[in-house]
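Protein in question kept in full:
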Amino acid sequence: MSDFVHVAVAIILNQNQQVLVSLRAKDSHQGGLWEFPGGKLENNESVYDALKREIYEELDISILKASPFKKIKFDYTDKQVLLDVWIIDSFMGEPRGSEGQQIKWQSVYDLRLKCFPAANRSIINSLQLPDKYMITGSFQDEEDFLLKLEVSLKKGISLVQLRCKEYSKNEYIKLAEKASILCKSYNAKLLLNTTEDIFSILNADGLHLTSKMLNTIQCRPISEEFLLSVSCHTHAEIEQAKELKADVILLSPVKETMSHPGVQGIGWVQFKNLSESIDAPVYALGGMSEEDLIDAKKIGAQGVAAITGFWGR
């Protein structure tokens, strides 16, 4: 870690789900891009002290309370950084660009990855993604599928994985097209649990790879303009997902599930141990329901993923 430049980063949110961002000077590293404010730690300085000092120097505000959010290691080739990201819970003063930099409040959902340094990708995904990730379950026919999907969307589900193993390629494409239209009408993101070739001809927000598929792929199969979601069960699979620059990881099984009776879950302690090395948003999967959200978030998960807990409810 000594080779990494340790940087304290502040996520400052207002009541309107807007986050404060500032424009990097053109002659700086990653110049001309927007960033979340912060700066490098000085010798023997704690992250929290660095955060308070940098934010006061840059924005002329005093941090009153802040909470650790996530740590991100990133290699730019010419520079390696460790971003120590904190959520600012409260502050005193009115933010201004004290160093002459342009600042603005921007909706979390309007943040564009291409406008920020690559190391910020995981931060933006974490801010934009919901805490509930629904995987589609069983249905009788297309009409029943669309009914259950809409019921879920009306209940607030905004991240959907279309999983339909028993369908043929043409059947899956037809269903995915209709699911995409419905999800878009509710401003929900649709991820397709399918092959790269089927994904390439459909209009979806991302691709999901099973752990079996993960082990057959050597490089990221889709453009970074789309979300790449990956199922993992082991440390080795997590490392492979990181190699593919996965944007979302489903870590399972946390608990015993109806689909795999008798298979013991890894539990929250092991989930925490495995997920600590992951920069990307991580969802707990396996026997999960909305009631598990508190436990999941306590140990740093983005939220929970489920079929039975969310599908058609």
